[in-house]
Specification:
The chain is of the alpha+beta class and about 220 residues long. It has helices at about 30-35, 60-75, 165-180, 190-215, and strands at about 15, 20, 80-85, 95-100, 105-115, 125-130, 140-145, 145-155, 160-165.
Length: about 220
């Protein structure tokens, strides 16, 4: 998911790591320091349109390296979240570094996530502009609930529950959709989907150039 460009990512202020508050946290998650940049898949590639497989091996060097790579790739692409199939890996996993509407920063990863059904009594749909790293350069208004709870595991197989409101709730829903084989384009009307694809066609090369420049600036 694309980050809101008007918002900066604070180095340390009101941070929740894996759903738990921490006193301070660096501007880039430590995982990114260990990671390598991977190519971000683009809408139309088959892996983005099929459900991902559950992770069954935990605590492995391979899983840890994948998470590291996903964090760095997300930052290079100016993202707030990234699913594994967006780096061409069909596993149920996403990473995130996203501010909510109260300015609280949420950082972490979630393996085999399951989104709780929304409470009908408190469900509130909000239209807000949404982007996607796999739809480079496009942004369209998408209705999402303003509260989300996602349950899953960390890379060691320990249970994790992540709750989000506002923009972070949108991020959690967006990334969970990816692992089910959907992008936000699937939630648009035919007219709006065509407009998003037009935007992508016009802007994608500029987006790719900025990503390449940022990766070079990080020495990656």
């Amino acid at each position: 998911m694309s980050v809101r460009h008007e918002r900066s990512r604070p180095a340390d202020r009101r941070v929740r790591l894996q759903g738990r508050p921490v006193d301070s946290y660096p501007a880039l998650a430590p995982e990114a320091e260990r990671g390598s940049v991977r190519r971000v898949t683009v809408v139309g590639e088959e892996i983005l349109s099929r459900s991902c497989q559950e992770v069954t091996r935990f605590g492995s060097p391979g899983l840890s390296a994948l998470i590291d790579d996903m964090f760095l790739t997300m930052y290079v692409a100016d993202g707030a979240g990234l699913a594994a199939n967006q780096v061409d890996i069909g596993l149920r996993l996403f990473v995130y570094d996203c501010l909510d509407d109260h300015g609280i920063r949420h950082v972490g990863h979630l393996v085999n996530p399951v989104l709780d059904p929304p409470d009908p009594g408190s469900r509130r749909l909000v239209d807000d502009v949404e982007g996607c790293l796999s739809v480079p350069g496009a942004g369209m208004a998408v209705p999402r609930t303003d509260h989300a709870v996602v349950r899953g595991l960390d890379q060691d197989g320990e249970p994790v529950v992540i709750e989000g409101t506002g923009y972070f709730a949108r991020c959690l829903q967006h990334e969970t959709d990816h692992l089910l084989g959907h992008t936000y384009l699937d939630r648009l009307s035919k007219r709006d989907r065509a407009e998003a694809l037009r935007q992508m066609a016009d802007r994608r090369e500029g987006v790719f150039a900025r990503r390449a420049a940022k990766a070079a600036g990080l020495g990656r």
